[in-house]
Specification:
Helix content: 40-55%
CATH topology: Rossmann fold
Order of helices and strands: EHEHHEHEH
Radius of gyration: 15 Å
Structural class: alpha/beta
Low-confidence stretches: none
CATH architecture: 3-Layer(aba) Sandwich
Number of helices: 5
CATH superfamily: Response regulator
Mean pLDDT: 94
């Protein structure tokens, strides 16, 4: 399985989601799941925002080598699940790539309060506290994704 996390610039939310998933997937028996991230309109090659890097270090994973990359049809085609941060991003990807519409989901849909809070706020150029709140929302949704994937993995018939 391949999961692609998508946000606007690929310097805050999607790299945090990708790194968190990668760090904790083994605890859920999901080490074989491939994860990546991309941005709808990134400055390609840009490093993550300083506050995102600091926050990731606080949380036990490192984003210092991450570089922003552009979302492409190839990335979407190769992904089984494309997780976006905002409803507008889902609508945009669904209109740009209608053939892959069924793969595009809101990351928040895996969170317990996802229906009430569908958009994960962009902390770009915000304070460390704003990044912490954004990361709290990402973590809650990715933890729900872990539960969902773990249950789906257990239901697969052997062979």
């Amino acid at each position: 399985m391949r999961i692609l996390f998508v946000c606007t610039g690929n310097v805050c939310r999607s790299p945090l989601a990708e790194a968190y998933f990668r760090r904790f997937a083994p605890f859920y028996g999901l080490s074989s799941v491939e994860v990546a991230s991309a941005g709808i309109s990134p400055l390609e090659g840009q490093s993550v925002e300083e506050e995102a890097r600091r926050l990731s270090q606080e949380m036990g994973f490192d984003l210092s080598n991450h570089r922003a990359r552009q979302l492409s049809e190839e990335l979407i085609k190769d992904a089984d699940l494309v997780l976006v941060m905002e409803r507008g991003q889902r609508e945009l990807l669904s209109s740009l790539f209608p053939q892959y519409r069924d793969r595009v989901k809101l990351l928040s849909s895996f969170a317990r309060d996802g229906a009430a809070n569908p958009d994960i706020p962009d902390a770009y150029q915000g304070t460390l506290d704003e990044y912490r709140e954004t990361f709290r929302r990402i973590k809650e949704a990715v933890d729900g994704l872990f539960r969902f994937l773990s249950l789906a993995h257990k239901r697969k018939p052997d062979g």
